[in-house]
């Protein structure tokens, strides 16, 4: 698994994107809680509750 740390303009960690071995990307907020995921097989991004957010990889937009 690879993890990309996302930092704000002040350098503080605001979240991360973890890429799993199957290609699924999981977005996590600063506390480490899952905020959503993207499955490249279906090309769909889903929120933390599993609801469809949109088509394509939108996980970076879920991190605030």
Shape: globular
Major sheet details: 6 strands, antiparallel
Trace the largest sheet across and list its strands: 1-2-3-4-5-6
Put simply, the count of helices is 1
> Any idea what the radius of gyration is?
11 Å
| Total domain modules | 1
Question: Proportion of β residues?
Answer: over 45%
> What is the first-to-last residue Cα distance?
22 Å
Element pattern in H and E: EEEEEEH
Structural class: mainly beta
Q: Share of helix among residues?
A: under 10%
List the main descriptive attributes of the protein structure presented here.
mainly beta, 6 strands, six-stranded antiparallel β-sheet, 64 residues
Summarize this, please?
By secondary structure, this protein is mainly beta. It has one helix spanning 59-62, and strands at 2-7, 13-19, 25-29, 34-39, 44-47, 52-55. 6% of the residues lie in helices and 50% in strands.
Helix-strand blueprint:
Blueprint: E1 2-7, E2 13-19, E3 25-29, E4 34-39, E5 44-47, E6 52-55, H1 59-62
Antiparallel strand pairs: 1-2, 2-3, 3-4, 4-5, 5-6
């Amino acid at each position: 698994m690879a993890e990309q740390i996302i930092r704000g303009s002040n350098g503080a960690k605001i979240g991360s994107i973890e890429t799993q071995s199957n290609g699924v990307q999981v977005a996590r907020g600063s506390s480490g809680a899952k905020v959503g995921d993207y499955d490249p097989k279906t090309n769909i991004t889903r929120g933390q509750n599993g609801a469809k957010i949109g088509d394509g990889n939108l996980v970076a937009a879920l991190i605030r």
